[in-house]
Hints:
Elements: H1 7-93, H2 97-108, E1 113-121, E2 124-131, H3 134-145, E3 150-160, E4 169-177, H4 183-192
Antiparallel strand pairs: 1-2, 2-4, 3-4
Helix pairs in contact: 1-4
Amino acid sequence: MAYINLLPWREEALKAKQKEFFIILAAAGVFAFALVFSVNLYFQARIDGQQARNQFLQNEIQLLDIQIAEIKTLNDKKSALQKRIDVVAQLQRSRNVGTQVLDEIATIIPNGIYITQLDKKGNIIQITGKSESNNHLANMIRAIESSDLFTDATPESITADDGSPKLLSSFKMRVTIKGLVDDSNTKLAKAANGGGK
């Protein structure tokens, strides 16, 4: 009987299987590397896109901050200009205040009240006079409070004159003029306009 040596064939088959295994292993490694590389590229692209968007938003925020600062500066300038306009309007209203005060006093003083002295300091007028009765004085105070020019009528003193032939009372009253620029505001207006003189 003839003997066949199968060892070389088995070695060849084993080598073929090993070669096939290494090929499959290499293919799997290449596939895994390609998959990881592609996933990495995908997520890196997402990260780069998000960073680009973040940078864009940062740039826009910086532009908005600059615009907000400009708006604040404009609001400050507008506020300063409005203050100047208000001071000019007050100065305009107070230009003929002497005439207006005398005209208004002639309107609000009822019969039975006699004015002997008027003193003006800033917005305050000190009225000194005589009254035939306290009712006339109360009517005058009500007329002052309803006036468009005067406010805050404050009686300081009411005294009876015993030596006069009629029963007259002397009074002193303090009245505030509405919308009149006082001395400090006048200086402020001059300073705002660069005068200060």
